[in-house]
Structures are given as C-alpha cells and as structure tokens.
Design a protein that fits this description.
The complex is a heterodimer of chains A (295) and B (240).
Chain A lengths: L2 E2 L2 E2 H32 L6 H19 L3 H22 L9 H23 L15 E3 L4 E3 H23 L1 H18 L4 H23 L9 H16 L4 H21 L4 H15 L10
Antiparallel strand pairs in A: 1-2, 3-4
Chain B lengths: L5 E16 L2 E13 L2 E6 L5 H8 L5 E8 L2 E2 L5 H5 L3 E4 L11 H6 L11 H7 L1 H5 L10 H13 L5 E5 L7 H16 L3 E5 L3 H4 L5 E6 L2 E7 L7 H8 L2
Parallel strand pairs in B: 3-8, 3-9, 6-7, 7-8
Antiparallel strand pairs in B: 1-2, 1-4, 4-5, 9-10
Classes of the chains: A mainly alpha (295), B alpha/beta (240).
Chain lengths: 295, 240
C-alpha cells in the first residue's frame, strides 16, 4: 500500500474525512453562534444544548411516534427553533443591552437545566438511532471508502453554510441583519421591527444548531451531554475565526476539523488539544481572530 | 405631490416633554409645534438638548414624560419602529451610514412608510455622486457624500416629516450649499422639516421659524420676519 510520510494513504484520507465531518459540525455550530452574536451581541452558551436537543428530539420523535429521519430533518430544527424564539422572548430580551456576562450566565444556566432534565429522564448512555437504509454502503474510491451518510453530511452542511452566507450577504433580509449588527436603534428608527428580527434571528441560529444535531444523530452517540462536549471546541473555533464573521466561522470550522483529523494521524495524543493551541497562537498574534475586523 | 404649506395642520406638537438618560435629566419641559410644510430649526449651543429633542421624538432616549403628538396621534406609548410608520424620517447626527452595506443597500434599507416617496431614479438624479458610487461600501464615501446618502435614504421612504440633526457639520462650503438647495426643493414639495443646526447662516434663509434652546428648555421662539429685530437676543444665546 502506498504511504505518505510513513502513513498509509487510506489511513490519512480516512482521518481527513473524519476531520472534514467534524469540521462540518464545527462550521454549522459556529455559524449559528456568529449569526446570534452579530445581531444580539449574546454569547449563546445554550448553543450546544440546542444541538443536543436537535439530536434528542429526532430520536424521541422516532421512538415515540415513528417519525422518520427525513421528516425529522425539517421538524426537529423547527421545534427547537420555536423553543429558541420563546427563550429569547421570555428570558434573553429582559437582559438585552446589559453586560455580556449576564447573557452568558443565563444561557449557560439554561443549557445546564436542559441537560440536567434530559439526563434525569434518559441517562447519559447513548441512545440508538439507525440511519435510513438508503445510506447503507458507500463510494469505493481508489484511496479510501466514503460512506454515503458521511458524504450526505458534508453535502448538507456545506449547503446550509452556503445558503446562510448567501442569505446574509446577498439578500434584503440579510442587509437588515448586517445593518442591525451595526446600529439596531437606528434601524428601528427607520420603521423596522427590530425586536421581532432579533427573536427570529435567535430562532434561526438555534435552528442551524438543531439541524446539525439531526445530522449527527445517526453517527454520533446521542446523549444529553453531547452538546457540552462539542461546545467548548466550537467556542475555540469562533475565537480563531473572529466573533461575528459569517464566512470566517464556516472556513475556520472546516479548517479546524481537518487540522484535528491530521493531528490524529501524526500525534494522536495531541489531537484534542491542537485546536486550543491554534486558538492561543491566534489570540497572541491576531486578537480579533483570523477573519475578525481589527478593533 | 406638491402641496403648499398648510399652516393650520399640526404635524407635530410636543408638550411638556422631559427626557432622561439614566439619572441625567436632559430635557426640562419642551413645548413646540410644527405645522405641515414648515421648516423649523432648533438652535442653541452644544449640549442644549437639541439632538435629544429629536431622539425623544423618535423614542430613542431612556425615559420620557409629557406628550408628543404626530399628525394628531399621541406617540408616547409607541414603539420606536411605529414612529417611522407615521411618516417620520430621521437623519442622525452621526449620519448612521452602515459600513457592512454598499451605497445602494444603504439607500434601500429603510422600508417605504408612505406612498409618494422619491424613486431611486429621482434620488440618483438629485445626487449623481451616489449613482456613480452605488456599489461602494457606504462608509468609503466622503463625508459630504455620506451626508447626501443619509438624506437620500429617508426621502425614498415617503416620510413627510424629516428630523435632520446637524446635517452640515464638518462639511465643505460647496457641499453645504448643495444641501441648502436640496432643502429648498424638499420644502417646495411640501415636506415638514425640523432642522437641528449649528450653522446659523445656513439655517436662517431657509427656515420659517426658529426655536432657541438652552439647558434643555426652549427659551425663545423667533419667526423668520422677526429675525432682524431679535438678532441681538439670538446672538446672546448662541454666543456668536
């Protein structure tokens, strides 16, 4: 078998693929965080919980009502998104404009409560969720085997990332979001219903997280703590990319997944730390992040 | 839509308006009336409360008491985004051009609130520079162009009462002259204009009436034909 740097090509590409998959989830989650931070100026610590809710709702809907994967792909984000809108309306709105630390603590508390309640009911052992039969098998490429479902995850993640980027950068609604990021008060003075825009934006960011959760359900272990595990990495990704940059969140997410994947090949013990090392280096050299605007 | 000044119709009536930022009490009982088609200025030194008066009308200050009637409707309980819908166009002192938006996006950002606003073509023919630079980032424009953009933006919405805050500040004389021409055109169209202005020589020939503010109160009301007689009073307030 051919080797690159003393590593079999199949292993290398296998890890690259895993890296891209992880990166796709990092990208989806940091994208939602960036969208929410942009308009609400809230560091949404409940984001991991929303991702977990997306996966849990998918599994629960299947077990309880037999609702299949394809329906869950739309329905679970919608359900969790509505929950997000209520959360914004009843809790976050009350502390709007206060110091970042309040919204951070509030969302963190909400995340812990959701996680705690679900742990009480379902325990922390993974719940089984099998992928639809259509995804059995994969592409046999010369250098590696690419399971259909992994290809689907990458495709859907890229589609959602591109769709979100397009919506924000190229459409009228997106111009409201971009302008609201700069001066929400003036926007409201022009007659735009900013409080509604804020609720919907939070709901949308949460929906992306829940969507990622649905995508994750068949391949990752679905547990009430799955969100808190990934959230810390995602925050590192957001810091590296630069808070509030949409394209930055997407590119950095994918890139960090790949870097993590390669580290697993060459120095596995370091794989779970490498992203944080990158974060430290970026913070030292470019404190506003790779894609952030210089303050 | 050319409608002459209707001196009977009260477009704006402010009574006993107090405004607060946190603990600071900024406006101390403002009373003023603006009729449809009038151009009224708020004159005074920096910190007299002129900009805050406009912001209070837009419901953009912390706390307000008193009454603000727009077209005969009490607006004290209105959310800020409902004020614009009553036909009010606000141009803030810092111009409020969005850097994340290009010129055209900036121009089309505010929703149309009434019929009868200017079309994009009309706006571009009034401000040819904006057409040439329509795909530039909003904040890459010169100060004068940004001011034109901030004005043009609210003309598109069909607002029939404009609240303009220090539109000539820091601009070259040739731009100030151009802005003066624009204001005359808007006045001839029948728009109601409340102008906060530092540059008295710019405001004097345009305005129907002047309110002079000091320490958050209106201390003098001077109509255009009284201007000469009251010049010395005015000078003492403005410190020129």
């Amino acid at each position: 078998m051919s080797m690159i740097l003393g590593v079999p090509v199949a292993v290398l590409f296998g890890q690259l693929l895993l890296g891209i998959i992880n990166g796709a989830f990092y990208a989806l989650l940091s994208l939602g965080l960036a969208v929410i931070f942009g308009l609400l100026k809230i560091i949404n610590f409940a984001h991991g919980a929303m991702y977990m809710l997306g996966a849990m709702v998918t599994v629960i809907m299947f077990d309880a009502m037999g609702i299949n994967y394809w329906v869950a792909l739309f329905l679970a984000p919608l359900v969790v998104g509505c929950f997000g809108v209520l959360l914004e309306y009843f809790l976050l709105r009350r502390i709007a404009g206060q110091d970042h630390i309040y919204s951070l603590l509030l969302t963190f508390g909400v995340a812990l409560m959701i996680q705690g309640i679900l742990t009480n009911i379902f325990g922390v052992s993974g719940m089984r969720y099998s992928m639809p039969d259509i995804f059995q098998g994969g592409f046999k490429l010369d250098f590696m085997f690419l399971p259909y479902y992994r290809a689907w995850v990458i495709f859907m993640a890229l589609l959602v990332c591109f769709g979100t980027w397009f919506m924000i950068e190229k459409t009228k609604l997106g111009s409201y979001l971009r302008a609201g990021t700069e001066d929400a008060q003036l926007m409201q003075g022009f007659g735009i219903n900013v409080p509604l825009l804020i609720s919907l934006t939070y709901g949308f960011g949460v929906m992306i997280a829940a969507f990622a959760g649905v995508l994750a359900a068949p391949i990752y272990s679905v547990t009430p703590v799955m969100g808190s595990n990934i959230l810390i990495v995602v925050f590192a990704v957001v810091v590296i990319g630069g808070m509030g940059s949409i394209a930055g969140a997407i590119i950095t997410g994918l890139l960090m997944g790949v870097i993590e994947g390669f580290t697993k090949v060459f120095y596995p013990e370091f794989a779970s730390a490498v992203i944080f090392l990158v974060m430290v280096v970026v913070l030292l050299i470019r404190p506003s992040g790779l894609f952030g605007k210089e303050a | 839509m050319s409608q002459g000044a209707d001196k009977e119709y009260e477009q704006l009536r402010v009574s006993g308006l107090h405004a607060f930022y946190g603990e600071s009490h900024i406006l101390h009982g403002i009373d003023m009336v603006v009729h449809r088609g009038e151009l009224v200025t708020l004159l005074g030194r920096n910190g007299a409360g002129r900009s805050t008066t406009l912001k209070a009308i837009m419901n953009m200050v912390g706390r307000r008491t008193g009454s603000i009637m727009i077209n005969g409707n009490e607006t004290m309980t209105c959310q800020p985004h409902h004020i614009a819908r009553l036909g009010v166009g606000y141009c803030p002192e810092h111009r409020g051009i969005f850097s994340a938006l290009n010129v055209q996006e900036n121009l089309t950002l505010p929703p149309v609130v009434r019929s009868g606003g200017m079309s994009l073509e009309e706006i571009y023919s009034m401000f040819p520079n904006l057409y040439e630079r329509r795909f530039s980032q909003g904040t890459k424009l010169s100060g004068g162009e940004q001011q034109m953009l901030a004005m043009a933006r609210i003309l598109r919405t069909g607002a029939n009462m404009l609240l303009l805050d220090e539109i000539t500040e820091g601009l070259a004389p040739v731009i100030v002259e151009k802005l003066g021409e624009v204001l005359v055109k808007l006045k001839n169209k029948g728009l109601t204009i409340v102008l906060v202005e530092q540059n008295f020589h710019f405001a004097a020939p345009l305005a129907d009436r002047h309110y002079v503010m000091e320490h958050g109160q209106i201390v003098e009301e001077i109509s255009a034909d009284e201007l000469e007689a009251k010049q010395s009073v005015l000078d003492s307030y403005l410190g020129v």
